[in-house]
User: Which sequence fits this backbone?
């Protein structure tokens, strides 16, 4: 920060900065607290003070009898997250491309997709649950819960794609076609690389929203729990810091994915900037 | 079938349309149908009765649950709007470096991609009877006995809503603010408006639709919630979602379905009011 810049600071900068910092502490403070408490000693409780430091509760996490089926539910959540991520990315990309032309029913479908986003989750969960029951299918995390998650992730994917194509400069595409590219070549070599950063964002949303989804999984997961259901079960019957250890692990996992996605987006943008040094 | 080959859009949009049809429209139709069914302790009995609605709409439990839910929705909306607007305003108008601006924006949105349940649980060591807040206040002799209403209370529910959903306000409002022509702000100040006049007469009207989008998210999320209310109130408060959830766990699906239909209609009425303020497609 240069000195003249500081002099030009608008009135209210300091109080607003304080509010912002407090807001960030409010956002992250509680999560940081349970992260610290998950290192409680073996005799430690759910609150401060710390009773020694140990990895005891993290070890407990991997002993199956202690905390239900942590390993199984984690595996299911990750597999489901990957499936939801892939479908969200492909389906929203296709739909995004479709909406570049007008077509019959386009508006209806768009508003229905928005409804899918803002409809209370319990309604979708209950509806899919009863529907599967009525047609004689048993609900499963890979079938009914998978569909339920898509109703939550696809609207985000579609909205991101809308935002991308609204800002998309069509002259790149026109240039490719002028130079004799087929429509597949135009897509693969021009359009796709340009929208890749946003697609990575859609993938991130698809995975993490599915991985953490609770309400829409509640009635649709069937016999086997996903991780959020398992965690919810633990809140009522686990009274040791093992709950915090689990919370810390999954939060760290999410943070890792978010960082990986951000780095990937940054790397794609950077390599593009290097390839086109003349465009400024 | 000629229109299929003429316009590839139909083919491209098919997967999305199928998901919406199978997992949104069919389930909602199922709920509406089942809400007119009868049931006993073991099974659902296809029928066409209004008893589920009659019971629902005449019960004082429903009324108090709706009042409670509206109270949660309005309080959370006011707080998230004020807080979200302030944070967005700071990011949009006070942070000059685009890099810092993106970093801070990402910082505000990352918690959205982590588990809501974990974020609720993390208030327990802070707000509980022996939690950090109570023990600190006791240590500095501000209070003699622990404050009981910090956790498992309406206060805790609203705190959790604000904690979980403020970023739904920050993101669309920030997005609207970034499109405001900075010259308008300058002009307002040059014309002699105070900072507050500029905010309320220039900035707020120009990010009306951002505010509306954020409000739609916050209000619908709170109206349909059951997990935050049951976890943070410790089972002491009952919102509409909690009632539905209870009926589900008692396997009274037709009653739950009727509750869901009434909730759906309530939410749709609220949405139709809020959607008047925006044109979603222009916002993206």
Assistant:
């Amino acid at each position: 920060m240069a000195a003249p810049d500081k002099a030009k600071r608008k009135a209210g900068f300091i109080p607003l900065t304080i509010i912002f910092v407090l807001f960030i502490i409010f956002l992250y403070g509680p999560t940081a607290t349970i992260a610290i408490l998950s290192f409680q000693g073996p005799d430690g409780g759910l609150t401060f003070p710390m009773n020694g430091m140990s990895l005891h509760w993290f070890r407990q996490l991997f002993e199956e009898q202690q905390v239900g089926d942590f390993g199984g539910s984690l595996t299911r959540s990750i597999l489901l997250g990957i499936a939801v991520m892939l479908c969200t990315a492909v389906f929203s990309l296709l739909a995004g491309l479709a909406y570049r032309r007008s077509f019959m029913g386009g508006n209806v479908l768009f508003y229905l997709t928005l409804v899918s986003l803002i409809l209370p989750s319990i309604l979708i969960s209950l509806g899919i649950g009863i529907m599967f029951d009525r047609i004689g299918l048993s609900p499963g995390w890979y079938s009914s819960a998978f569909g339920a998650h898509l109703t939550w992730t696809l609207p985000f994917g579609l909205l991101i794609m809308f935002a991308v194509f609204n800002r998309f400069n069509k002259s790149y595409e026109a240039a490719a076609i002028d130079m004799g590219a087929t429509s597949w070549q135009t897509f693969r070599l021009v359009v796709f690389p340009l929208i890749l950063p946003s697609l990575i964002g859609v993938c991130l949303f698809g995975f993490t929203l599915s991985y953490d989804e609770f309400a829409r999984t509640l009635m649709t997961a069937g016999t086997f729990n996903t991780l959020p259901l398992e965690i919810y079960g633990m809140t009522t019957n686990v009274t040791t810091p093992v709950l915090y250890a689990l919370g810390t692990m999954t939060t760290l996992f999410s943070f890792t994915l978010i960082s990986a996605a951000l780095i990937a987006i940054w790397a794609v943008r950077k390599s593009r900037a290097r390839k086109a040094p003349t465009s400024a | 079938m000629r229109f299929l080959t003429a316009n590839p859009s139909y083919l491209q949009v098919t997967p999305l349309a199928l998901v919406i049809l199978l997992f949104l429209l069919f389930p909602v139709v199922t709920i509406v149908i089942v809400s007119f069914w009868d049931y006993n302790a073991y099974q659902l009995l296809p029928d066409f009765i209004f008893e589920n609605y009659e019971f629902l709409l005449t019960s004082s439990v429903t009324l108090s649950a709706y009042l409670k839910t509206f109270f949660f929705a309005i309080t959370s909306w006011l707080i998230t709007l004020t807080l979200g607007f302030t944070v967005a305003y700071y990011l949009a108008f006070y942070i000059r470096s685009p890099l810092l601006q993106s970093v801070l924006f990402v910082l505000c949105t990352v918690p959205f991609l982590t588990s809501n349940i974990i974020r609720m649980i993390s208030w327990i060591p802070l707000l509980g009877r022996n939690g950090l807040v109570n023990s600190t206040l006791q240590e500095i002799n501000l209070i003699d006995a622990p404050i009981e209403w910090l956790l498992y209370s309406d206060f805790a529910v609203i705190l959790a809503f604000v904690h979980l959903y403020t970023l739904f306000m920050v993101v669309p409002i920030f997005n609207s603010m970034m499109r405001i022509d900075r010259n308008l702000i300058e002009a307002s100040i040059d014309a002699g408006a105070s900072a507050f006049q500029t905010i309320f007469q220039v900035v707020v009207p120009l990010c009306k639709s951002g505010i509306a989008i954020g409000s739609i998210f916050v209000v619908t999320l709170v109206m349909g919630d059951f997990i935050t209310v049951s976890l943070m109130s410790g089972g002491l408060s009952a919102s509409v979602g909690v009632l539905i959830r209870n009926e589900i766990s008692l396997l009274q699906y037709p009653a739950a379905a009727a509750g869901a239909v009434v909730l759906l209609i309530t939410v749709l009425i609220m949405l139709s009011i809020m959607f008047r303020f925006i044109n979603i497609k222009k916002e993206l």
About this structure: The mean pLDDT of chain B is 88.
